[in-house]
Amino acid sequence: MQKLIFVVCAIVCAAHMSFAAQPTAKVDQRIEFANAVCRMAHFDAIGEADIQYSTYVNATDDLKRSISGHEVGSISLELNMLLKGIAGKHEKIVVDALEWTITNGKIEATDADATALQQSLSSSDYSKFISLINRYYSLSRFDQFYLKNKEVYSQAEELYNAVLKQFDTKAFTSLFGQDISNINVYVSLMNKGNSYSVSGQNAIILGGICDEYVGNDWQHRMGIDKLNFKAQYAITLSISELLLSSHLDRYDEETYESSKWYYTTQSVLFQRNNIDISEVYKDQMVRLSALYYIANTKSSQLNIEDAIILQKREGFSWTNELYSIIKEQYDTTKYRTIVEFLPVVTSRYNDLLK
């Protein structure tokens, strides 16, 4: 009887491992409102080309048009003065939104000093920031706007969950030594072209669908295959960054000097893609890890050659040379995860950039 129980348990466990749980995408009111605040105050990272086709983004502009110009101008001016000199305002505000709660139409921050924005402001200035966005939330009636667009959000979640189902969670676990099934995946319709990892929340915030993929006639205009490469690539990078972030926060002087030279040679492309000098090394290692995942999974949508070309266009011109080190020398019998192999890649990184 005990042997039978053992065999049954083994079969159940094996089946559970074969069908690893997938993370689930969701649209979050806090993140959508944070993006609306950034648009109102002109902190957003959405280009004019994106705005032209996005009726959803244009609808958020109607929010501020429903308020008197004086009120909007006053809130925008005060936010700009308050956050003057803070780099990456858009990302900081969107990430900060994960620490908000919205109850009975009021926004409150749940964890003092937990985010980069909170750490960039004094306690009194952060309280003022929360007061200003509450004013805009109330005047714009954003709660009604969010309810009105529930169907659009459902469509976005449906599209991204279909993409997430195609991910090989076991391959990620094997590569990084961490389970990804419990990662919080947030999709933002106004965060086009910008995806962030938030280690403190075990979360990734994805952008990139807007009306290009979601709208009243989305089924006719947009098949899931068309979304796949862009979405899977963004998700792969964001998950890789999330799982590697704690290992890449600090690096030695030699690597920093190498990164400075790298940044100087590709500054136009790096600036265009919002990559600053302190992020060059980390972003290169994240992209290399993502390439290894892409090359070793059987996705018809993620193509290693296309991914390498894309990375070069972003400014990472040494991708081929660095990736060849992983491809040729990363031995899973010697290194348990990609993290253990990164010192080898870093050494080659420094040699190439001298």
Give a written overview of the molecule:
By secondary structure, the protein is of the alpha/beta class. 64% of the residues lie in helices and 6% in strands. It has a 4-stranded mixed beta sheet, with helices on both faces. The protein has a two-stranded antiparallel sheet with strand order 2-3. α17 (280-295) packs across α19 (319-329). The chain starts with a helix and ends with a helix. Residues 1-19, 46-53 and 210-225 have low confidence and may be disordered.
Largest sheet: 4 strands, mixed
Oligomer: single chain
Shape: globular
From the N-terminal CA to the C-terminal CA, the straight-line distance is 66 Å
Helicity level, as a percent range? 55-70%
Q: Unreliable stretches, pLDDT < 50, 5 or more residues?
A: 1-19, 46-53, 210-225
Q: What is the radius of gyration computed over CA atoms, rounded to a whole number of angstroms?
A: 22 Å
- Amount of beta strand: 5-15%
**Structural class of the helix and strand makeup?**
alpha/beta
The number of helical elements comes to 20
Number of domains: 3
Tags for this entry?
disordered N terminus, 20 helices, 354 residues, alpha/beta, 64% helix, 3 domains, single chain, 4-stranded mixed beta sheet, two-stranded antiparallel ribbon
Summed up:
The chain has 354 residues and is an alpha/beta fold. 64% of the residues lie in helices and 6% in strands.
List the helices and strands and how they pair.
Blueprint: H1 2-18, E1 25-26, H2 29-40, H3 48-53, H4 55-65, H5 69-82, H6 89-96, E2 100-103, E3 106-109, H7 116-120, H8 123-140, H9 142-148, H10 150-164, H11 169-176, E4 184-188, E5 196-198, E6 203-207, H12 210-213, H13 218-221, H14 224-248, H15 253-265, H16 267-272, H17 280-295, H18 304-313, H19 319-329, H20 338-352
Parallel strand pairs: 1-4, 4-6
Antiparallel strand pairs: 2-3, 5-6
Helix pairs in contact: 2-6, 5-8, 10-14, 14-17, 15-20, 17-18, 17-19, 19-20
